[in-house]
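tool=predict chain=A
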Amino acid sequence: MNLKKNWKARSLLAASLGACLLAAQTPAAAQAPWPEKPITMVVPYSAGGPTDVVARMLAIPMGKSLGQTVIVENTVGAGGTIAPARVAKAAPNGYTILIHHMGMATAPALYKKLNYDPLKDFEYVGQVMDVPMTLLSRKDFPASNFQELLAYVKTNKDKVTLANAGIGAVSQLCGMLFAHQIGVQLTTVPYKGAGPALNDLMGGQVDLLCDQTTQTAPVIKDGNRVKVFGVTTPRRLSSMPNIPTLDEQGLKGFDVKVWHGIYAPKGTPPAVMEKLNTALRAALQDDMVKHRFAELSTEAVPMDKVTPEALRTHLAAETEKWGKVIRAAGVQAD
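tool=predict ok
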C-alpha cells in the first residue's frame, strides 16, 4: 500500500508541476509573432498623387524590415476623410495603417462632421517628411515672372482658374492661402487627386496649381511643360536653387510645407507600434529612399521627429494653426 500511495503522490506531483509549467508557458505561446501576414498601408488619395508616391517609396523597405509585404491601398473620397475613418475603425492589430499628410490637421476645421477624431482615434507611428510646394501655371500662361503673374491675376481674377486636388487637399490650402495673401478671389477647379489636376494644367485646361514637389519636380525639371513662379518655403531648394521663394518675391511669411505621418488604430499594442516605428525609421534611412527623396526635392524629417510623441505634438499644433486660417477664410464643407 505504501508503494501505491507513493506512486500516486508522485504522479499527482508530476501532473501538478506539468500544469504549472504549461500555465507559465501559455502567455508566451499566446503572443504570436507579429506580423504574420501582409500589412495594408491606406492612402487617402488617388494612385500617382504625392502621398501615394511617398507611400510606395516607403512600402518596400518597411516590408523588408518587418518581414512581410506592405500593400499600398488607395481609399479615395470626401477630401481624404474616408481613409482615416476606415483605419480608425479597423481592428487595432497593426495590419491596417494610415499614411496621411497635413490633411489630418485641417479636416476638423474643414468639415462640419467627421467620423473620426485625429487626436483621439489613432496611435502615432511617427512623422515622415516635410515636402515643399511650388506655384505653377500652364506653359502658355501670359505672365513670365511672379510680378507679371500678380498683375495679371489681379486684373483678370474672374478669368483665372486655380486647380486643386479636391477639398481638404494641400493644393487647395496652398491655393487658398495664396489667393488670400494677394487679396483676390479666384475660380477654383477641384479634381479627384493631384495627378489629374497636374495633367490638366499641362494640357492647358486650367491656369494655376500649387502642389508638392513630389508631384511637380519632374515636370519642372523637364523644362518646357509648365511655368514655375516660386517655392513655398522660406529658403530656396538646394535641388532647384534658381527658383525663388514666394517670400523673397513679396509674399512675406508665405511658408507652406506638407508634412506626412503614419498612424494606426487606437489600441494597437505597444509592441506592434514599436515594430512599426522601427520599420519606418529603417525605411527613412534606406539609401534608395534618400535618393528618391532628393530627386523629388524633399528629405526625411530628423530622426528625433520620427517618434509617436513628436507626431502627436505636431498634429495638435498644426490642427490649431490651420483651424484659425480656415475659419478666418470661411471655408467649410458638409
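Confidence is low (pLDDT under 50) at residues 17-30. The chain has eleven helices and eleven strands.
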